[in-house]
Amino acid sequence: MKNRTKIKVPLKYQPMIEEVDKDSDGYWAYSKPGFKFADMECHTAREDSQVDLLDVIRSLAPCDCKECASEVSGAAV
Ligand SMILES: [Zn+2]
To answer: How far is the CA of 44 from the centre of ligand 1 (A)?
Structure first.
């Protein structure tokens, strides 16, 4: 997991995350193929604060959408 922020991501969620980043729009988290942020039903989360992003990270769950399935299996999309 790449982390360009000071957010302390709990160890159990780190294998499910590709990257945590921040820019002028706020804080971002990208889930790894095979996982999603269940709160939003999406693979990319954006929040205004570190606390809010952590809340979303805690909603990480396995994902079996078409996009994930093809990435996990290594097939071309
Ligand atoms: Zn998915």
So the answer is: 10
Q: Tens digits of per-residue pLDDT, 16-34?
A: 999 999 999 999 999 999 9
Q: What total of structural domains would you count in the chain?
A: 1
Between the CA of 2 and the centroid of ligand 1 the distance, in Å, is 19
Q: Ligand 1 mean position to 35 CA, how many Å?
A: 6
Contacts 24+ apart (CB under 8 A), 26-31: 27/52, 27/53, 28/53, 29/53, 29/56, 29/57, 31/60, 31/63
Is 71 inside a domain boundary?
A: no
For residue 53, the enclosing domain spans 2-66
pLDDT per position as a tens digit, 54-67 = 999 999 999 999 99
76 belongs to a structural domain: no
